Amino acid sequence: MKTAMQEHIEWLNATLDICKEHAPSLVNCLELCVRDAESRLEKEKAQIMEAYLIRYEGINDNVAEQYYNETYESK
Predict the structure, then answer these.
(1) Domain segments of the chain as ranges
(2) Residues 6+ apart with CB under 8 A from 15
(3) What's the first-to-final CA gap in the chain, in angstroms?
(4) Which of the 8 DSSP states describes residue 28?
């Protein structure tokens, strides 16, 4: 299984090839990159919470979500 960031890097490389071929403006390309990264945030959150649940066997989803929110949510 690939992490969300690994998928994002693959997507960026494919997008870069398209950008080279069709030469869209840099702004358009960056907007695409931001939208793609944002679309993967929920998957990344789920992966982090799953890893936390595995690491601390016996805790529940609420504790894992609290850990995520305290560690990764913007203040």
Answers:
(1) 1-39, 41-75
(2) 29, 32, 33, 36
(3) 30
(4) H
In angstroms, what CA-CA distances link 35 with 1, 18, 53, 73?
Answer: 22, 16, 29, 18
Q: What does the pLDDT look like over 29-42, one tens digit per residue?
A: 777 888 888 898 89
Query: Residue 62 is encoded by which pair of tokens?
Result: 């609420």
Q: What is the pLDDT of residues 10-29, one digit of tens each?
A: 888 888 777 777 766 776 77
pTM: 0.67
Beta-carbon contacts of residue 8 (< 8 Å; ≥ 6 apart): 36, 37, 40
Phi, psi (deg, nearest 5) at residue 58? 100, -10
Residue type, 27: V
